[in-house]
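batch_manifest entry 22 of 60
target: ATP/GTP-binding protein
source organism: Nanchangia anserum
requested by: lab member K.T.
priority: normal
notes from requester: please return C-alpha cells only, no post-processing; we will run our own comparison against the previous entry in this batch. if the run fails, retry once and flag.
--- input ---
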Amino acid sequence: MARRSGKRPYAKPHRRLDMTRLASMPRSEERGERSFRVQHVSSGRKPYTCPGCLSEIPQGTAHVVVWATDQFVSAERMVEGRRHWHASCWHRGLRPA
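--- output ---
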C-alpha cells in the first residue's frame, strides 16, 4: 500500500468559516440610525445603475444588493427599495445622489 505524503493538508486544522465572505448570505449593517441588509451577488443578470456613483454595473459583474430593514417598513417596501451597488461604493459609504 502506498504511503501518504506528509505535504497533504489532512494534518492541518480547519480554517474558521468567515460568514462575511459567503456570497449568498445576507448580513445586517448599521449606517447611522438606519439598518440595512447587504447581500453579495457574484454576477448580475442585467446591467444596473449604482446609486452611489451613478455609474453602470455591467451585466455579469459582482456587486452588492442593499435594502433597508427599518422597523416601520413593510416587506413589500423592502423589496421595492432594494438597490444594486458597486461593492466599493457601498463600503466607502457613498450617499445616493
